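FAQ: What does the model actually see?

It sees only this:
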Amino acid sequence: MEFFIYIIIFIVGTLLGSFCTLAIYRIPLKQNITYERSYCPNCKHKLNFLDLIPVFSYIFLKGKCRYCHKEIRPRYFIIEIFSGIALVLFAISMKIDFITINLKQIVYFIFIMLYFVTLILVAGIDKEYILIPKSIIICGIFFCTMYMLYLYILGKANLYKYGICIILIILFTITNIYNLKKKKKNNYTIDVLILYVYMTLFSNIECMLYTTAITLLIIGINVISKSKTYNKKLPIGFYLCVSNICIIILHNFLIFSIR
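And it is asked to produce this:
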């Protein structure tokens, strides 16, 4: 029974990953991500159902567009697989008994699932453009606000942490707006700080410390190795997001195994 439920969770994860690949491509181009049908970025041909099955379509089409035979970027496949595996691992880490599962566990799972989606979106866009879209952060804050209200009703909300993080995000945003008006360009460092505080809304201090350590380690390796990316701007947001997803899952395994 649990095996089939995990299969369903994996499918849901890949579907969310498929949506993320679409949004990662369209958000920077300011295109609609909900109503317009998916199309090939090269030949612009509208894709049909068989072209849109997460993971399997990429495999069956051998990584090429059915219509123009242009190679499909591997990131589509990687994001779909990563999303499915991450969601399954998170579900396993919670050690949920699917027979006696309660509302609190369901809500928490959905909450973290939506959080993972925002991180995957930010990671994908930042990796491609060195850009952290504020619209995704705002959307994530809305999800967090809903969850805080739910916890408040249960009498378990940490409103102090939530309030401090929101104030910091507002202050950093105002600073960024001022910088944009003065220098006519966005400040990537401030965007990273906004992302970091946003992640703190969803993660505890321990997770954030490990996320920071891993991100700094990756940056250090990039600098020391003097690879091709060394002379370019590093996608710090990408490193933070991927590290945080992995750390939250690992932390869950440790916490629930102790219990």
